[in-house]
Amino acid sequence: MFFKRSFQGVKEIVGVSKKTEDNEVNQLKIDLQNTIKKLKKASSSYSKLPDAGRSSTVCHMQAMKDGKDLLGEGCCCQECYSIFEEIDMKGHLYGMKIKEEVIEPIQRLVEACTIMEKRTKTLGQRRLDMDAAHDKYESIAKKAPEKQNGLAEAETRYNEAKDNYDYLRNEIVTDINKCIEQVKIQFPQICVNCMKSYTDYINELNEIWTKVPSIISSIPEVDLKQEIPITPNEQSMIVLENVRAKKNNDLGGFINDDFTSQTKPTEPTTPVMTTPQPTNQFSTVTALYDYTAVDAGELSFKEGDVITVLEKSGDWWSGELNGVKGIFPSNYVN
Question: What is the pTM of this model?
């Protein structure tokens, strides 16, 4: 059967056989295909509605959760998180309503139209059978009466093929028109269902949001543009000159011995340089403070650096750090 239909199709393409044209069916097929395409596009758009609404809520929930992690339990962020959590639950219910009252009805319309599209393909196969049977009958009927062998049988097959085509054709014309009409009837209600569902969702959100003003009013208003009250860089003890100045100022006033004995030793004064006496013992020391070389030949280091001692003599020792050698004050290290 497949070979016979394919052969008939080739004959029609090359013009050997005449193809039955059914303009009404052809136009309905085009209308049906366009309707299916538009329905699927609409279904895709409506399917995005629940996630579109909830994505914003989920982002707000995460932001409030991060705020709660920062401020701790019982903070305002925890209250705000609970509000968005409640909104998210309403968003979930909204999504279920959209699925049941909007998306599923569209899918049923798509399924009905798709069934009709498949039936038009069967109708096309029956047209090929009908045209092939007609060609067979016509080829015998054109012969002389004495050579018309099998004419009656060919006529019977043609009439049977024509009935198979006509009955399905008439059903398809009726049903496609019904499908397209149902789309025009049902889709406005689908649109209304969407708006009703969203209206219910918005009203529920507004009701939940009535809790927000009390949260806002309970928190003192703060100017977020004001400067953060930290010590400016130029006054900070990160600058060694500020440390020396502060120390000199402290020495001019009262110093609590009990307090100073429990704190880290203050930065020592730079010892007087003496002539180093070599020693054969090599060891390492750890810097207690930052030291920046003042003269050539001195070794600079940072607090925590481990220095290899090359020579120990008086208050100034010779050492090596990261491949650089130089002298340094011994009271800066431990």
Answer: 0.63
